[in-house]
Amino acid sequence: MAALDTIVVVRLVVADDIRQARAAENLVASESCTIAASVLMECEWVLRGCYKLEPGVIATCFRDLLALEHIDPLDPVLVQRALQGYEAGLDFADALHAAQRREGERFATFDKQLVRRAPKAGVTAVSLLKA
Questions:
Q1: Which domain holds residue 61?
Q2: 120 part of a folded domain
Q3: Which residue from 19, 68, 79, 123 lies 20 to 30 Å from 89 (Cα-Cα)?
Q4: Is 111 inside any structural domain?
Q5: What are the beta bridge partners of residue 1?
Q6: Domains in the chain: how many in total?
């Protein structure tokens, strides 16, 4: 079993380095692999910032990747909740952070856009902290 690093996941998605992409493909074809939510968060940042992929494309890539036979998220419920928030318009990191809070906790932020977008994404109890 192997836990995948960000660059391995990026190579699986974009395959811009053929040798590394093939090595990553061989790994996930030959043994069970896990992906941490933090790795997906970093991958989203790389795919959006460096590769200029749109959020919808990134979400589809993540869903396709996680549907592969030998790949599982470490915390499937957390990743599902984060992807739902992301697909509904939240920043992936914000969706992941909000999904990690304890039941009944509010998510306090100074980010006014997050407060506005959260209800549309089904993320409740996000509150604006005033300075």
A1: 2-101
A2: no
A3: 68
A4: no
A5: none
A6: 1
Q: State the pTM of this model.
A: 0.90
Enumerate residues 6+ apart whose C-beta is below 8 A from 58: 44, 47, 48, 86, 92
Q: Which H or E run includes 126?
A: strand 126-128
Burial class (CB in 10 A: 0-12, 13-18, 19+), 47: buried
Residue 72 tokens read as: 């599982």
Residue 24 has pLDDT above 90, yes or no: yes
User: How far is Cα 53 from Cα 90, in angstroms, rounded to an integer?
Assistant: 16
Within-domain flag for 107: no
For residue 45, being part of any structural domain is answered with yes
End-to-end CA distance of the chain: 47
pLDDT tens by residue, 53-96: 999 999 999 999 999 999 999 999 999 999 999 999 999 999 99
